[in-house]
Amino acid sequence: MRILIVGINYAPELTGIGKYSSEMAEYLVAAGHEVRIVTAPPYYPEWRVDDGYVAWHYSKEQRKGVSIWRCPIWVPARPSGLKRLLHLASFALSSMPIMVRQIFWRPNVILVIEPPLFCAPLAWLCAKLSGAKAWLHVQDFEIDAAFDMGILRAPWLHRIVAIAESWLMRRFNKVSTISDNMLERLLIKGVAPERSLLLPNWVDAREIFPLPKASSYRAELGIEDNKCVVLYSGNMGEKQGLEILLEAARSLLAESRLLFVLCGAGAARERLMQMGAGLHNVRWLPLQPAEKLNELLNLADVHLMPQRADAADLVMPSKVLGMLASGRPVLATAHPGTQLAKMVSSCGIVVEPGNAQEVARGLLELLHAPQERERLGVEARKAAQAWDKAGVLQGFENQLLAMRNQ
User: Fold this and answer.
1) Is the pTM of this model over 0.85?
2) How far is the C-alpha of 16 from the C-alpha of 2, rounded, in Å?
3) Using one digit for the tens of pLDDT, what is the confidence trace for 95-146?
4) In sequence order, what are the residues at sequence separation of 6 or more whose Cβ sits closer than 8 angstroms to the Cβ of residue 64?
C-alpha cells in the first residue's frame, strides 16, 4: 500500500505525538508498505526548532525507509492561545503545496493526525482527488481543550467551530482516537459507530521493563539508597498541571526520605523552576535521550502522573504506558471515571485533581508501604501488556488493509 501521513510532529522528537507517528510509519515500512509523511521541522517539547533544521525552509529527507517532507512553521517561544492557533495554521498553510503534489503519487490511504485539525480539510480533499481513503486520527481534541482550559473563551466561536468540526469528521472513511472515553466523545460529535475506531498509543514492553538492579541514574545523580524517588518525566507544558507537584513537595520538606525528580522540557519549565526555587527535595533534569529511557523510568519508586481536571479525556497522557511497563506504581490526579483513573486504579493511587495535600498524603502512604509498592508495580507491569506495541500496530495495519478493500 501507498500511505500518506500528515502530522505536525515527527522524529527526531522524543516525546508526545511525534514519537507515535514515527513508530507507526516505521512499522508500516517494515511491513512492506510505502510511506510518505508531510510534517514540520522538529520543535517539541522545547518549542524551538532543533539544530540542523530551519523553520522557514522546505526540505526532504529519508529516515528509516520513510520519505519525509518538512514544511515551514512558525514556532512561538512562549505559546499562548492565539499564538498556538497561528502556529498550527502556519503548518496547515505551508503544507498545502506539498499535499497537492502527493495527489499525483496516488496514495491508497491518507492519514491525518490531529492536532492540527486545520490540516484535515485539505487531507480529505486530496483523498477525494486521488481516490484514496481518508483516515483522521485524533491524538488530542485540541479545540475542546482550548475552550475548556480557557485558552480560547468566546462561546459563540466554540459553537461555530464545533459544528464545523463535526461536519468535517463525518466526511472521513475512518476516525480513530486513543482511549475509550475519547472514542465516546467522537460518537457525541456525530461520527458513526461503524466509522469510529479505538487506536490506542502503545509501549514496547521489550524496551521498557523492570531492571533487576538499581537504575544507573541513582549513582549518576548521587541519590542515597534510602531515598524514595518520586518521578515525573515528560512534557512540561500548561496542560500537565505540574504546579501541584511543587506544592506537594513544599508540604513534604520535612520528610527526608522523599525526593522529587522532575525531568523533561516544555513551555512551562522555566516558570516551574522559578516556582520551585529553594525546594531541596526537588531535582531537575533535562529531557533525556531515548536510549536511556528505561534506566530513567526505573529510577522511580513511584511515578507521578498529574492531569488538570479540565483536560480530562480531551488528551490522554500516553507517557503513563511507559510508567506502567517499568513495573512501578503510579500516583495520578484524576476524577473517577476518567480514562486515566481507569488505567491507574488497579496499580497505583488516584487522587483529586488540583489537591496538593491529597498528592502528599498518597505519597506518604506509598513511602511507608514498600510491600504495597512492590505489589502495585507487578500489577502495573501486567496492565502494560494490553498496550504492547506489536499487537496495537498489527491491529492498525489490519484496519488499513480492510479499509482499502472496502
Assistant:
1) yes
2) 25
3) 999 999 999 999 999 999 999 889 999 999 999 999 999 999 999 888 787 7
4) 26, 29
Pairing of strands 59-63, 66-70: antiparallel
| Helix, strand, coil percentages in the chain from 3-state DSSP, rounded to 5 | 45, 20, 40
Cα dihedral sign, 258-263-268-269: positive
Amino acid occupying residue 242: L
Sole residue written with cell 479499509? 403
Task: Kindly report each contact of residues 153-159 with a partner whose C-beta sits within 8 Å and lies 24 or more positions away, as own/partner.
Answer: none
Calculate the alpha carbon distances from 294 to 8, 267, 307, 366, 384 in Å.
Answer: 27, 25, 23, 22, 14
- Asked if 259 and 229 count as a contact pair (C-beta separation under 8 A), the reply is yes
8 A C-beta contact, residue 333 and residue 357? no
Amino acid at 262: L
Q: Mean pLDDT of successive 10-residue segments in the chain (406 residues)? A: 97 93 98 98 94 95 97 90 86 97 97 94 97 96 76 77 92 95 94 96 96 94 95 84 94 96 92 94 94 97 89 77 97 92 94 95 96 97 94 96 86
Q: Residue 128: name the closest of 164, 91, 100 by CA.
A: 100
In sequence order, what E strands does 79-173 have? 109-114, 133-138
CATH class of 216-386: alpha beta
Query: What number of residues does the chain have?
Result: 406
CATH number listed for the domain at residues 2-202+388-404? 3.40.50.2000
113 has which bridge partners? Answer: 137
Pick the closest to residue 325 from 351, 293, 350 (CA basis): 293
Q: Where in the chain is the domain with CATH 3.40.50.2000?
A: 2-202+388-404, 216-386
Q: Which residue has the cell 504506558?
A: 321
**Residue 76 cell numbers, joined:** 512561538
Q: Which three cell numbers stand for residue 4?
A: 500518506
